[in-house]
Amino acid sequence: MAALLAGTALLYLWDLAKTGWANDFYAMAAQAGTWSWKALFFGSLDPGNVVTVDKPPFSLWIMGLSGRLFGFSSWSLLVPNALAGVASVGLLYLAVRRLSGPGAGLLAGAGLALTPVAALMFRYDNPDAFLVLLLVAGAYCVVRALEHASTKWLLLAGVAIGFGFLDKMLQAFLVLPAFVLVYAVAAPTSLGRRIGRLFAAAGAVLVSAGWWIAAVALWPVADRPYISGSTDNSVLELAFGYNGLGRIFGEGRGGRAVTPPAGIELPAGGELPGGGRGFGGGFGGQAGLTRLFGGEFGGEASWLLPAAVIGLVAGLWFTRRAPRTDRTRAALLLWGGWLVVTALVFSYMSGIIHPYYTVALAPGIVATLAISTRELWRGRANFAARAVLAVMLAVTAVWAFVLLARTPDWQPWVRYALLGSGAAAVGGLLFGADRVRRLGPVVAVLGLCGALLGTTSFTLATAATAHAGGTPSSGPSVASGRGFGGGARGFGAGETDSAVIDLLKGTTTKWAAAQSGAMQSAGLALASGRPVLAIGGFSGSDPAPTLQQFRQYVADGDIRYFVAGGRGGFGGGRGTAGEIQAWVEQNFAPLTVGGTTVYDLTKSVD
């Protein structure tokens, strides 16, 4: 375990600063949290608390506090996420070990650490890193609760899921069906007590998630920021609208693809994160069972998915006559339920979905695979168990070969090496070589190489590549096109003009500048170290600030400059952001600073 955690820490922390600010959008909010406790609490994009990010602020609390303690930098921003990854691997090991032994625990932990999308997200500042940590922590608590039907541990599982909601809202609830199922089936107590304790755990979820929602709802609206992404300035509407049912059913602001306005160019799939609407399928391709294996998703987390599904079915079949509280079946229900529900939701979501969301699927995949592999290996005296294990290995090696073939110019030897070692291990299993003295470990090593060489190579390439923007993808930097492109700056990675940055550094006003949309304004704030007002939130589509509020800020001398070139609602200057931009253009003379048009808001044309 010590070697596993040390290797994971090295993988996730090595040369971490090359990623820079990663996703400027969340980095901007973390920076604001280092300046203002109120901004930290709400997850505001600026210390003036005009508008929030379009997610709850749990991950921002951690990154903002790190910035306050150690000074705001790329390291203080990203190291907490990397440590969350190490902790996730450790907790997954402990959770799997308690029911299935240390071998399965080590295999599950290594599998998570060596999943490409995990190396991507645990070296990034999106909320997904802490979501995975909280979900794995919840699963660990459920495992502890199963041992003696513990109420305390089940309540702690509910608390973990509640805080997961405060990190990424309803996505945290995708594991709840598995948690409820395994406790209802396998807890060693009466049915009535099982049901009662599950209701108590539901209360723990509501309290741990609801306290912040209640605080925001009770806070005077005039004294808090606008909740970005919502239509009525409320957290609940954000949770069940744009970040909830809209994502699943493709309705509302988190909804279906529409044709982009003329002149607006977006990447393949084209989501408008932060409250905008999607274009062209939301980055996820067509909904259906094949989505997780397609170009956008395949290289992220699907390497071991086919084998995990086979192992789950086989494991449930072989334990079908086991007692209700059987530990192996309980483990399969927990992690297999996590896998099935999350995979189905991701596969059939009609709204906005990013391939990197699959990092939340990875623990279910690797834990299910590790548990089923361990049990099949132990029972390999039975030819049926050996045959299933051989099929799992063959499918994994072939699928890894297919995934690697999508980037044919990158290290072609890897796919042939894993195919060869996998074939040798499959032959050894089918012909019983694993049961011959001294050959068993050889077959096992060959099998591990065939299963993990592909995902390991892609993970190392991911960690070696700098990523930026709102749509990062795993894989080597030489990859491009649909599904890969790890070295490119993703959608939302705004460029900054050094001359404008120097101009902003010399300001002393409440906001050094304002700009439409956070995709560009975030770069200004991060590079200058001065507060910048992101008009309309991420995409410029939120009605915050209003034109009247903005005019008052200017009259009070709170904003020095307006920087052109932002994203005014992605609609050619429509909405509140467009109104503000039109008012500025009518009342202030443009200046050219470097290659950027800037308006000095202290010098009216009147």
From TrEMBL:
Q: Which GO terms describe its molecular function?
A: pentosyltransferase activity
| Residues spanning the membrane | 75-96, 103-123, 129-146, 172-191, 198-222, 301-318, 330-349, 355-371, 383-407, 413-431, 443-464
Q: Which Pfam families does the record match to this protein?
A: PMT_2, YkcB_C
Query: Per the database record, which ranges form the Glycosyltransferase RgtA/B/C/D-like domain?
Result: 54-208
Show where the Putative mannosyltransferase YkcA/B-like C-terminal domain sits.
507-587
Does Transmembrane helix show up as a keyword for this record? yes
Q: Does the keyword Transcription apply?
A: no
Gene Ontology CC entries for this record: plasma membrane
> How does the protein associate with the membrane?
Multi-pass membrane protein
The protein's UniProt keywords, in alphabetical order, are: Cell membrane, Glycosyltransferase, Membrane, Transferase, Transmembrane, Transmembrane helix
Q: Which compartments does it reside in? A: Cell membrane
Q: Do you know which InterPro entries this protein is assigned to?
A: LipidA_mod_glycosyltrf_83, RgtA/B/C-like, YkcA/B-like_C
Q: Name one GO biological process term.
A: response to iron(III) ion
Entry protein name? Glycosyl transferase
The organism of origin for this protein: Amycolatopsis mediterranei (strain S699)
